[in-house]
Each structure stands twice: as structure tokens, then as C-alpha cells.
Write a structure and sequence with these properties.
1 helix; 3% helix; mainly beta; 52% strand; elongated
């Protein structure tokens, strides 16, 4: 279990009109769960058909309830609540992740200042300031918050790996190149459509 704290943002500033709630839940979560929605307006909860939610007559705030039913275990049902604030001038929030650097970490870049980052997958990553360290392979989720707006950024991450050290020799009798290697755990060689573990002869 990846121990995700939540999948949908805790708050979202949206324009009046129709909101596609699926845009708040990433595709990997929608593949893993059957996702449905409810809308709470002034204490009245309404089931949403599909993912399009009409906010035309909503003033102020409403609460979107995202219901995630695990496809592998239907008895496991999660509910994320997102406070929706109507704001036609809502700022778009974006978070990007750099390539891994020499120290084995990544840098997080935000498109706006005065924002706060919340690690939603502490089993997979750690965050210190704008530095992200991968603890184990998986899907990392980070909520970027600013005021009554937030965005969940999703990244597929891998722990740092070293490329295998391969030595090549030429076999003149059989007219072929022979590769030998050390420290090749987890690596494979693909040739002519076939994949071979590096330890295969």
C-alpha cells in the first residue's frame, strides 16, 4: 500500500460554471479506483452523475466529496473533501520536478510565491524546502497550496540507480563482441527483440 494521505486537493478556487471533477484526480488514481462524486451546498448533499458539476448557481463555497472505491478491494472506500471557492480570477498553480542531480535529489519549482507544499506520499518521498528525495519507487503526490486554492502534482519517481560498468572484448574466432559486467542487479540487455539478464551467458 502506498499510504496516500489524499488524492484530491483539499481546496480549489474555480470559476462559476461547469467543473469537470475528473481534472482534480489524476489518471493513475482513476485507473486504480472507481471514482464518483457528491456535492454539498449549504448542507444539502447531491449525488453527481458523471464528473461534470454545475456550479452556476453556487455562490461563495461548496464542498466536493470525491469517493474512491478500490477496484481490487471494493470494501475499501476513501472519501476526499475539497472546499470549492468560486473565483473567476483563480490563479493556476503548477509544480515541476527537475531531473535527479549529482547528490541523488530533485528540485521542486513552483510557478508562484507564497505557496505551501504538503507531502501526500511520505512513504515514497521526503521534502525539505524545495528539495525532494525519493525513498522508494512509486507515484509521488504533492499538494501545492496558496490561500483557498491548491493543486495536487503527481510524479512517477524512482530511487537513484547507477548504470552498470560494462567491459567489452572482441572474440575474433566467433567474430562477436563479448560483454562482461559487475554490479548489474536490475539491469537487462536487449538484442534483436530478446531481453537477457546481464548474468545470462
Amino acid at each position: 500500500d502506498d499510504m496516500v494521505i489524499r488524492f484530491a486537493p483539499s481546496r480549489k478556487a474555480v470559476s462559476a460554471g461547469v467543473l469537470d471533477a475528473n481534472t482534480l484526480v489524476d489518471s493513475s488514481a482513476r485507473n486504480r479506483f472507481t471514482v464518483s462524486y457528491q456535492l454539498n451546498v449549504n448542507g444539502t448533499i447531491t449525488d453527481v452523475t458523471g464528473s461534470n458539476i454545475d456550479l452556476t448557481n453556487v455562490t461563495g463555497r461548496a464542498v466536493l466529496i470525491t469517493i474512491l472505491t478500490d477496484n481490487l478491494n471494493p470494501n475499501r472506500v476513501l472519501r476526499d473533501r475539497t472546499v470549492l471557492t468560486i473565483d473567476d480570477n483563480a490563479e493556476t498553480l503548477a509544480l515541476t520536478l527537475s531531473d535527479v542531480d549529482a547528490s541523488g535529489t530533485h528540485t521542486l519549482s513552483r510557478n508562484t510565491t507564497a505557496s505551501f507544499l504538503r507531502n501526500l506520499t511520505p512513504k515514497i518521498i521526503t521534502i525539505s524546502g524545495n528539495t525532494l528525495t525519493v525513498r522508494e519507487d512509486g507515484v509521488a503526490r504533492i499538494e501545492m497550496r496558496k490561500g483557498m486554492n491548491s493543486h495536487v502534482a503527481v510524479f512517477e519517481v524512482r530511487t537513484p540507480r547507477n548504470a552498470p560498468n560494462i567491459s567489452w572484448a572482441y572474440d575474433s574466432v566467433n567474430t562477436e563482441a563479448v560483454a562482461t559486467s559487475s554490479d548489474v542487479a536490475g539491469w537487462a540487455l536487449e538484442y534483436d527483440g530478446n531481453s537477457y539478464a546481464m548474468s545470462d551467458e
